[in-house]
Amino acid sequence: MTMQIFMESIAAIFTLQNMLFMFVAIVFGMMAGALPGFTATMAVALMVPFTFTMSPVSGLITIGALYCATIFGGSFSAILLNTPGTPSSIGTCFDGYPMARQGRGKEAIYTATIGSGVGGVVGTFGLILFAVPLARAALRFGPPEFFWVAIFGLTIISSISEESLLKGIAAGFIGILISMIGIAPVGGDMRFDFGMVSFQGGVEIVSVLIGFFCIPEIFRMAMDPSASYSEVNSVQHEKGALKRAFNNVIGHPLASLRASILGLIIGILPGAGGNIANLIAYNEAKRASKHPETFGHGEPQGVVATEVSNNAVVEGAMVPLLALGIPGSPPAAIIYGALLLQGLSPGPQLFTRNASLVYAFMLSFFVANILMTIVGFFAGKGMYKAVIKVPIRILIPTILFLTVLGSYAIRNNPMDVIIMFVSGIVGYILKDLGFNTGAFVLGLILGPIAERGFVQGLLMGNNVSMTTPWIILFTRPLSIALIVLSAFSAAWPFIRAAFRKKKGGATIVAAALGKTEAPGAKKLNTDYVGGAIILAITAIFFFQIKEWSRYATMAPKSVLFILALFGLALLIKGRLKPEMITTTFTKLSKSLVLVLVVGLLWVFLLDKIGFLVTSFIAFFTIMFAFHPKKGAARIIGAAAVAVGVIAALYLVFVKFLLVSLPTGILI
């Protein structure tokens, strides 16, 4: 990039019109990202038609700013509601939500905001300096390498499930099994559809994410609807929150740089994306920490790792797009289409024929991330104050309404809403039994990547050896490097535990984070229950196996065999060394039963009776049941809140975001 091109690019960015476009795109992107189920891909797709009348530079700058802000916006709902607004914010839930529950929500949001800005700026440096060589390096990744990348990601389970490794690995394999519902990645066979047309398209991952992370928190709130949002007084934690947030990110430069580089590299790999990057970065942050036991209990470095990495992914995804014409993520694929509509052809020639334009686009990420950070401070602070001031009795139906609306908006499929709520019930029970829901999500995300890489790798291996095609998975240089990394990642928790034991056992921090239980509380042998559930799932899926092709059958049979072994192992462990836990799902309160029944009726009837009618009835019922007043004031108050919230969110989704809603015999 010459000085002349640099000055032309800067002049193109810093016009009043383009700065205004970026600001509007950032506000819209944050709002879209914070809405559960409304992904970055949907936001970018909605924005593309508005860029038709813009100049090429204005259109690209606007879309780029929107992409950054949408990924960042997912952290708001992850921290405040334990619901990843976008799949890239999964890891943010692990520590962001506990921080909010501890009254440190403002610190968590500020940390995510600064971390997102830092990740975006570092990612932009990588995009500008190394776009072409990094893109060429990414082309060396074939199916065998992607298989080992997925395996490397799955080894994170050993880190996040140290409390019960057996259950964590089992949860991961259940996630892999669920990801196999639908069309096989190689062969096109229809698998595990249970005779239902709705399952032929597979399980929508965002719906499952919303269910697994958000619905259990709604149930927890329903156990005591008169409680406050925060477990402690949040006022005492608000003072100095911004200073602590700066120290969390800027005070740990190596951690922030590590997460940025991981995000950039993973973003470059086509098909990987922020949902993998933030989990791998989270694992690496935990592994490098002196106090890994604090992760998952409100550790700011967990938020830093995930938010820095998933925002660096945005710029990483632009590397293969601009340099080679290969989109690195679904939103990048839409940007590819936007470039073509502007008469531009992504690839090496783009840097020679339209140098000023492409460098203006890349440099605009600097400005967008800085502007996003500034706006994020005010938006995040406002959202946090709004959430902690809203009574739990209003939060419960409002969040439930958002989960229903967001799950339907993804594919306009009522079955996605049912899957979301049922996933939430399953997630609530599994979490109560000691299973790690994060491990399940890892399996759900990485399962298809691992299976596709494995099967396609075997097909490639047939050209090497017809008798031992699997040898190709172990002989390529990059595969060998990833195998070593995977082995080290899987073994690291055991190595660390051995060192800690040698030094004299657990730390004071670990002891402080131990679970406290009421004296005399009745405990359940969760190994017996968990093992029985796993064997039941295995049996249900096993009897669904049909006459599929060889490559479509290979992975499901292997996963079912491993799951059966884990189920038996848990039953044996329950006999020899049981894990006794005080569960909550076995002692249902009236308020929890009400939310459960209303939720089930809502998701099953919304496309038959009508979305607005069922939403109002469900919202009003919950509000009426939990309202502190009596008589007419109770009825009027519940109805007023129900109408106000539903009308506001209806206008946002239907009129502004252009989401169609189901209609039944009514509206």
What features would you describe in this structure?
Strands 1-2 form a two-stranded antiparallel sheet. The chain is an all-alpha fold. The protein is built from 29 helices and 4 strands. Mean pLDDT is 84; it is low at 506-516.
- What is the mean predicted local confidence, pLDDT? 84
Coarse morphology: globular
Put simply, the count of helices is: 29
Largest sheet: 2 strands, antiparallel
Count of DSSP strands: 4
Radius of gyration using CA atoms only:
25 Å
Portion in beta strands:
under 5%
Kindly report how far apart the N and C termini lie: 57 Å
Q: Residue share in helices? A: over 70%
> Which ranges are low-confidence, i.e. pLDDT below 50, for 5 or more consecutive residues?
506-516
Q: Which structural class best describes the helix and strand composition?
A: mainly alpha
Q: In which order are the strands of the major sheet placed?
A: 1-2
Features of the shown structure:
globular, mainly alpha, 4 strands, two-stranded antiparallel sheet, 667 residues, two-stranded antiparallel ribbon
